[in-house]
């Protein structure tokens, strides 16, 4: 008991430090791209007309309106939701192991740079995607007991709580909205098959997410998208369903969904290989053949991008098709490893649910354009959830001793934290310096002012407006530069 209390105190401290880290990143991240519009009268005009024909991401829009106007609130919310994305997967895994919490943090620190830029490094992206991810995680934390042997019990207060949770959580981003309906239906069916009863909480949540989805998709923007009136967001109707899925997956989808997650893929492969080596014992000849094949795939795939593709710079239409199929194979091997070699039915179902959630979330993106790395942060989150839950199983069943791994994992976390802190310190200082320079030029009467690019722009989403592009005058207006000021974009010159 004493040891458990000490563990929770230590884990609480870790969670607080993660919160401080993401707060610092937010503090040093300047507003970029759409944030400038949201922070001015354009954002308020959208609010006053009820976001008519804009989108149904009402709570995402409210969040963006607030955090582009109140600096301390932006820092607080981005710190809070960033830390919740790390802590909640470990809580769902029902662990008090420091190693699992550190692993969760490490995996979120290794998100691809372009995904980081469009979520953690962009207030508008954060407002819609990170927030939606946390609402899904809270729901999963509540219903995680459907994967236990004991029949779930929910208090009346928790049952009431899921009503606003379900409605609000549906008003951030569309593919998460659709996913949550499917997931809540699965939870009801699974619980009925397993426990031979319906649970009021599950039903209330389903009704709530349906109401939330109805509110979202009642916005006129979606009718325009499907009718072809929206020139930015479109639904491709020129291809058949299977042709469209194939074409989208082999061109861009596989990269955002799987291949770009280099650090995550290495960890997933190590975990799966560990399951195959330690758990898959006393198996049949057929299973032994599959086991060997799985280990080969799990060894090669995570190293393909950093070593084979990175060293030899291989790139062509043919290799892209190969990479897409190889990525699909890697994913299917993870699923098959769970189905064939995880021993308990409950855990098998839980882990499969997390992996299937990845493709369920991605499915709507096959048909709607455009999409980018930000759309896949919730898919990434489910891979992390799968990883930490599997590690917790290995630890709890004494297949894996995590204690010797605490220091190496902590060292990797520390390395990434220091690297990010340095990068965003440089970004913040450069952003302050360039705005000081721009204002001094404007005060001196210059109508054409030089605007330096920021360092490490790969971690920010369009932090510098395009020369003569649509966001250049928005930038001028947002920062109250004299009317008629023109920007001349120049390269980053480094510390002066």
TrEMBL record:
InterPro entries: DUF6056. Pfam families: DUF6056. It comes from the Bacteria. The chain crosses the membrane at residues 7-27, 71-91, 98-116, 122-142, 154-172, 178-196, 203-223, 253-276, 288-304, 324-342, 351-369, 375-396, 405-424. The keyword Glycoprotein does not apply. Keywords: Membrane, Transmembrane, Transmembrane helix. Signal peptide: none annotated. This is Glycosyltransferase RgtA/B/C/D-like domain-containing protein.
